[in-house]
Amino acid sequence: MDFAFDERTTELRERLLAFMDECVYPAEETFQRQAAESGWSPPPLLAGLKEEARRRGLWNLFLPGEHGAGLTNLQYAPLAEIMGRSPGIAPAATNCAAPDTGNMELLAEFGSEWQRRTWLAPLLAGEIRSAFAMTEPDVASSDATNIATSIVRDGDFYVINGRKWYASGAMNPGCAVFIVMGRTSQDGDPHRRQSMVLVPRDTPGLTVRRGMRVFGYTDADHGGHAELLLEDVRVPLDHVIGEEGGGFAIAQARLGPGRIHHCMRLIGMAERAIELMCARALSRTAFGEPLARQGVVREWIAEARVTVEQLRLLVLKTAWLMDTAGNRGAHTEIQAIKIATPRAVETILDRAIQLHGAGGVGQDFPLAGLWAAARALRLADGPDEVHKRSLARRELKKHMSAGS
Amino acid sequence: MDFAFDERTTELRERLLAFMDECVYPAEETFQRQAAESGWSPPPLLAGLKEEARRRGLWNLFLPGEHGAGLTNLQYAPLAEIMGRSPGIAPAATNCAAPDTGNMELLAEFGSEWQRRTWLAPLLAGEIRSAFAMTEPDVASSDATNIATSIVRDGDFYVINGRKWYASGAMNPGCAVFIVMGRTSQDGDPHRRQSMVLVPRDTPGLTVRRGMRVFGYTDADHGGHAELLLEDVRVPLDHVIGEEGGGFAIAQARLGPGRIHHCMRLIGMAERAIELMCARALSRTAFGEPLARQGVVREWIAEARVTVEQLRLLVLKTAWLMDTAGNRGAHTEIQAIKIATPRAVETILDRAIQLHGAGGVGQDFPLAGLWAAARALRLADGPDEVHKRSLARRELKKHMSAGS
Amino acid sequence: MDFAFDERTTELRERLLAFMDECVYPAEETFQRQAAESGWSPPPLLAGLKEEARRRGLWNLFLPGEHGAGLTNLQYAPLAEIMGRSPGIAPAATNCAAPDTGNMELLAEFGSEWQRRTWLAPLLAGEIRSAFAMTEPDVASSDATNIATSIVRDGDFYVINGRKWYASGAMNPGCAVFIVMGRTSQDGDPHRRQSMVLVPRDTPGLTVRRGMRVFGYTDADHGGHAELLLEDVRVPLDHVIGEEGGGFAIAQARLGPGRIHHCMRLIGMAERAIELMCARALSRTAFGEPLARQGVVREWIAEARVTVEQLRLLVLKTAWLMDTAGNRGAHTEIQAIKIATPRAVETILDRAIQLHGAGGVGQDFPLAGLWAAARALRLADGPDEVHKRSLARRELKKHMSAGS
Amino acid sequence: MDFAFDERTTELRERLLAFMDECVYPAEETFQRQAAESGWSPPPLLAGLKEEARRRGLWNLFLPGEHGAGLTNLQYAPLAEIMGRSPGIAPAATNCAAPDTGNMELLAEFGSEWQRRTWLAPLLAGEIRSAFAMTEPDVASSDATNIATSIVRDGDFYVINGRKWYASGAMNPGCAVFIVMGRTSQDGDPHRRQSMVLVPRDTPGLTVRRGMRVFGYTDADHGGHAELLLEDVRVPLDHVIGEEGGGFAIAQARLGPGRIHHCMRLIGMAERAIELMCARALSRTAFGEPLARQGVVREWIAEARVTVEQLRLLVLKTAWLMDTAGNRGAHTEIQAIKIATPRAVETILDRAIQLHGAGGVGQDFPLAGLWAAARALRLADGPDEVHKRSLARRELKKHMSAGS
C-alpha cells in the first residue's frame, strides 16, 4: 500500500497546475462575461485555450489506450480533480469535458472502424461536440428497462421515435451527433432489449426543442441540456453502436470512468469552495470578530477538510480497482463514490454560500453555480437512492453466502 | 389553550381557498409563460387577478389597524400559508407581497402624514411597488452596525452615498420608491446611528445597475433583486422615516411580522411540495414497484409531514405572542422560526426534487424555483447563524440570573 | 386559537413546581445512593415522597374520569413535562409512572367490576405496581400480528405459553400483576386474534428470568425490564380484559395517552439538559474562553431551544386533538410525536453529554442515564420506522382521494 | 499509488483471522458469562487465549522497533481492525490493548533503562497491566494547560497531589503502575509545565476510589475507568518519564499511534455491526416482508458500507503518512480520523441497534456495548470539537500564507 503519486502523475499534475495558473484562472472573468453574451455557443476565448492546452500536451488525458493519452484511471483521476477547480473552462479546454469523454470512450471501445473514423476522430481533435440522450421525461429512466423510445428496424434503416430530455451538451450548435438509447426489442432478457444508435444532428425528424434548466441556470457554457423530439427519425443500420441489444451493457461500461471523472471534478470544486471559504473568513468581520475566529465557521472548514480527504481516497481507490480488477470488480466502489461525493460536495458548497451572505447565491461568486452542478449530479445516472438500493442488495448477498 | 381557528380566520381561509382554486392555480401556467416574456415587468394577467382579489375582499389582509384588513398576526398567518402555495401569484394578487408588506407596515406605523399620503396610499391601492435597500456587498450587513452607506445632512437635504444589492422588487419598473438604510452618524450609541430615508426612483444619482441572481433565477416575477448605486443622491429632510437615528429600531419592528409572513408562506410551499411528492410517488414505477410503496419515499413523506406540523405550530404561537406580548415579548420565538423554517422547508423541497428526477431541477415543475427561494431565506435578514448566536446568548442569560 | 394555559393547569403547574423544588430535587442525591444499594426494590425514601405528593393533591393526575384527577390530556401534559425533569422520582412519587399509568387507564376503561376492585383499586392507591408484557424476543413485535405467545382456552381457564422480554417494571418485587398480550385465535381478522389477560405474579408456570439491560443500565429504580417465561400458566377466564379478541384494539387505545406522557416527560428531560448545558457552559473555560462564548456551544444551545419549542407545541396539540377528536382523530399526530420527540431529545442529551466531557458519560451527572431512556423510546411501542411507514401511507391516501 | 496490502500484512491478516475464527469468536459467550462474575478481574479464560496468541506469533504486534513485532503503522492498522471485531477479547489476548499499548510505546521511546527494565519488560510479557491518568474532573482537560494536579520536587522525591478520573484500566487488580500527568511548573512556556511520572499502584497516598461508568457499563473487562485520589504521593525523581517539563510533548507523541489503533478497531466494530445488521435483516419479517427487502433497511446497510470504505482509507493513509512523514507531518490527518471515525461508527451501531429492536439495547447482542465504547471515543483525547477547532486553524493558516 502506497499513497504517493507515481512519476507520470506527478509530472502531469505540475504541468496542468501551471496551465490553470497561467491560462485558466486568469480567463475566468472574461469567460463569464463572454458566456453571458454568446447564447448557446461556447465563449470565443475557449478556442485559444484549447490550442494552448494541446500545445502543452494536456489533451485527451482522460482517454486510455492508443487513441488518447494512455493514462490509467488512477493516473487521470488527480488531473480531473484539478480541472474541477474551474469546471466551466478547464475540462473543455483540455478536451476532457463530459459528455464527450464518455462518448469517445464508447466509440473507442465499441465503435466500428467507420464510426471511429467519422465521429471519434473529429471528437478527439476537438472539432465537434456530441451528446448522449438517455433520460426520458415520461418514465423513471434510472431503471433502464423503463426506457420507452423505440428503435425499429425497417429494411436498411432504424426508425426512432421518442422523447428525451436533459441531453447535456446538445444545445451547443457545435454538437454534431447524438448517441440515442432506445428499445430495439419488446421481449427476451430485459437487459438485452436496448440499443444505442448514432443520430447526426441534421437527421430529419430530430427536433432540439428547448434547453432545460438546472435551478435557473441554462448551463449554456456546457452546451445546455436539451429536450429532443424524435419523430420517425431514420438512420442506416450501421449507426448502431456495438450490436443490437447491447445498449444496456455499453451504458454500464460507460458509467465507471464517467463517475471517476465527475467525482474527482467535484472534489476539485470542493477544494475551490474551501479556498473561497477561507479567504472570506479571513477578510470579513461581524460582531467584532473576524469570521475566521468564529466557532461555527471553523467547524465548517474543518468538516469540509475531513470530508474531502475521505472522498478523494475513496475515488482514487475506485480508480485503482478499475485499473486492476476491471469495471465489474469495482462495482460496489463505483456506486459508493456516486452516492458519497455529490451530496458531500453539495454540503461544502452550501456552507461556502452561507459564509458569503447574499453574494453566495448570486452571480459574482462561482458558488451557487457549482452548487447547482453538484446537486444535479445527485440525479444524473440515476438518483442516489437507486444506487444505495443496489449496493445494499450486494452487501446482503455477501452475508447470505457467508451463511451468517 | 385551544388549537382551533377563530371564526373570522375560518371564513377568510375558505374565501381565500376558493380564490386559489378558481383563479390562482388555473392561472399558473399562463403566468409562467407570460413571465418568461415580460422581462422585469409583471405578467399582464396579474392586473386582472388583483382586481378579482380586491372584489372578493382579499386585499391588504396582512395589514393590521385601520389602514388594512385589521387582522391580528394570528389571524393573518394561516392566510399567508395558503398564499405560499402559489408564491409567485397569490401574494402579489392580494397586495400581500414582500417587500411592500413590510414597507407599508413601516409607513403606517412610523410614516408622517405626508409620507403616508404620498407613498402608503398608492401602495395600499396596489398602484405602485416599493423596495427596501439594506444589504451591502462590501460588509457583513447582518450586523447593522456595519452598514456603510452614508446619509449626510446638507442644509435642507440628505445626501446619500453607497452601494446596495439584493434590494428585492427594485427591478420592477413599477417600483416607485426605495426605502434606504444608511448611517446618519459616526458616533454615539451604535444602534442609534442608522436612519431610513425614502428615495423616489427617479432621484438623480440613483442608478439601478443590474439584477442580481438567486441560483440562476432572476426572480423577475417578484421584481428581481437590484444592485443600486447611490452617488450624491439628494432627498429633502422630510424623507426620513420616523426620526433620524431611528433606523435600527424601525428595522427591528419591521422584522417580526415579516418573519411570520415568510415562514407561513414557506409552510405553504412545503405543503405544495408534499402534494407534488405524493402525486409523483403514486404515478411513477421503478424496479417493479410504485414509488409510493418504496420505503425511502415513505420515509421522506412522513418526515415532511412531521416537520411541517411542528413548524406551523411554532409560527402560529409566535404570531399569538406578538399579538399578546408584543414584538419584544416574542423575540426568542421570532428568531426561532427564522432559524427553523427555511432550512426545514428546503429539505422537504430537496426531497421532492429528488423524487422528480431530472425534472425536479428544471422549469417544468415549480420545485427548483421554490427551493431557491427557501435557500435564499436562510440568508435574508441575516444568516441563521447570527440568529442562533443571539438566541443562545439570551438562553444563557436566563440561566445566569437563575443562578444555576 | 390560544396558547395560554387554562386556570386549572396553571394552578396545578405551580403546585407541582413547588413539590419539585421542595421535595424532589433535594431528594435526588439520596435517591441515587439508595438506588445503588436497594437492588430491584425502590429506594426507601420513595414512600415518604408518595405520601407527601398525595397530601398536596398531586396524585393520579394522569387519569381522566372519576377514578383519577379528572384532567384532560391537554391539562395533564404540561404536568408530565415537569415530572420529566426528574424522571426517576417525580412520576413514581405522584403515582403517575409508566407502565402503571397505561395499565390503570386500561383497567378503568375496559376492566370488569371485579378486575377494577382487585387490581385497579390498589394501583390507584399506590400499594402495588404492575407490568405490561407485550414484546417478544423471537418476533418483530411492532407488528402485533406477529405476537406468538399462545392463550388457549381449556375449560374455565386460559393456558398461556410463551416468552416475553422488556416487560418494564416487572423486576420490582412490588409488581403484583402482569398484563399479558397473546394470541387466542389462529385465524379470522388478523387484528381480532389477540387478547390481554391478567396474570398475578405468583401464578405457577410464570418465571421472571432476569432483568434486561438498557445500555448497561438495569433501570432498577423503574423496576427494571424483565424477561418472562410462561409455561402452561393457567388463569381463570374472567382474567381476560375486555373481551377475547379485543387485545389489539385495547393496545391501540392504550397507546395514545402513553405517548403524550412519554413525550412530555422527554421534553422535561430536554429542559433539564438545557439547564445543565448552560450551567456547564457558564462555569468552564477552555482555550482561554468560557465555553458559553464559544460558537459551537451556542449553536447547540440555540438548536436545543428551537427544537424543544416545536416539540412541545406538537405534543400539546396532539393532547388537544385527543380531547376534542378522540384517539382516532389524533392518529397522525400521535404517530408524529412518537417519531419526532425521542430522537430530538436524544440529540439534545448527546450534546449536553459532549459538553460535560468524560463526566457526561458517567454516573455523576444524570445525562447518560437520560440519554439511554430517550434512546430506548425510539424502540418502545415499535421502532420509529414503523410509525413513519404508517404515517406516510395515510398521507398518500389523502392525496389519492384528493385525485391528485 | 497502490491499494494492495504488502506480503507481511497479508500473511499476518490471515494468521490473525484464523485466530479469531478458531479461538476468539468461539470464546465470546463464555467470556461474557465469566466477565459478569469476575468483578474487576479479567475473565479466567483470557490467560489461555494470551498463551495461544503468543504461540501463534500474534503478540505485541502494535509495537514498532526492536521491543515489539516491528511492524509499521500501515502494517499494523489492518490487524487492529480485525481485533476490533471482538474488542473485549482480541486486543487483550494479543497484548495489544489500550492503554497498555500507548504506555509501552512511551516507555520504549522515552523511558530510562531502569524504567524499561522495571515496567516495560513485564508489560511486554503481558504479566502486568498499566493505566494512564490524565483527565481531571475539575477542569477542561482537553486543554492540557488546564491540568491542575501538582507534582512538586521535595529533595529526592516528587510529591503529587490531585484528582484524576477515567483512568482506563486502573480498576483491574493486575494494573501495577500508573502514568500520571501533572504540573511541575507554574510558569514559563505553557507547554513545558507538565511532566509524566510513574506511580506504582501501592504507593502510599494513592487511592483508587471507584469505577466510573460509561452509559451504565463498568467496562470491567477492560479494567474499568478509575477515579484516583493522589494525596502527598511521593515517588523518587527517577520516576519521571523523559525529562521534567516534557509531559506535553510525550502526550502528543503518544496520541498518533493510539488514534490509528482506536480508529481501526472502531472500523472493525463497524464491520461486525454490518454483519449483524445483514444477518438480522435476512432473518426477520415484519409487515409481510423480510427486513432485508425494506427500503430503509437497505438504505442503512448501503450507508454503512459507503462510510466504512471511506474511513478505512483515511486511517490507512494516516498510518502511511506517520510512517513516511512522521507524527508531525500527519498532524491534520491524525485529527481528521479522530473527528470522523467515532461518530460515524456510532451512527452505524445506532442503526444496527434499531434493527435489532429491544434486543439491540440489551445484553444479548454486543451492539449497545460497542455503541457506548464508540460514543466515549468522541470524548477521549479531547472532544471532537477541540480537534475541529485546531484543524480549521491550520487550514486557515494555509490560505493566509497562500495570500488568498
UniProtKB/TrEMBL annotation, chains A, B, C, D:
Domain Acyl-CoA dehydrogenase/oxidase C-terminal: 245-394
InterPro entries assigned: Acyl-CoA_dehydrogenase, Acyl-CoA_Oxase/DH_mid-dom, Acyl-CoA_Oxase/DH_mid-dom_sf, AcylCo_DH-like_C, AcylCo_DH/oxidase_C, AcylCoA_DH/ox_N, AcylCoA_DH/ox_N_sf, AcylCoA_DH/oxidase_NM_dom_sf
Any GO BP annotation: fatty acid beta-oxidation using acyl-CoA dehydrogenase
Ranges where the Acyl-CoA dehydrogenase/oxidase N-terminal domain occurs: 7-127
MF terms (GO), sorted A to Z: acyl-CoA dehydrogenase activity; flavin adenine dinucleotide binding
Tagged with keyword Ion transport: no
GO cellular component: cytoplasm
Keyword Ribonucleoprotein part of the UniProt annotation: no
SUPFAM superfamilies, per database record: Acyl-CoA dehydrogenase C-terminal domain-like, Acyl-CoA dehydrogenase NM domain-like
Keywords: FAD, Flavoprotein, Oxidoreductase
Boundaries of every Acyl-CoA oxidase/dehydrogenase middle domain copy: 131-232
Cofactor(s) listed in the protein's UniProt record: FAD
Subunit relationships: Homodimer.
Family according to the record: Belongs to the acyl-CoA dehydrogenase family.
Name of this protein: Acyl-CoA dehydrogenase
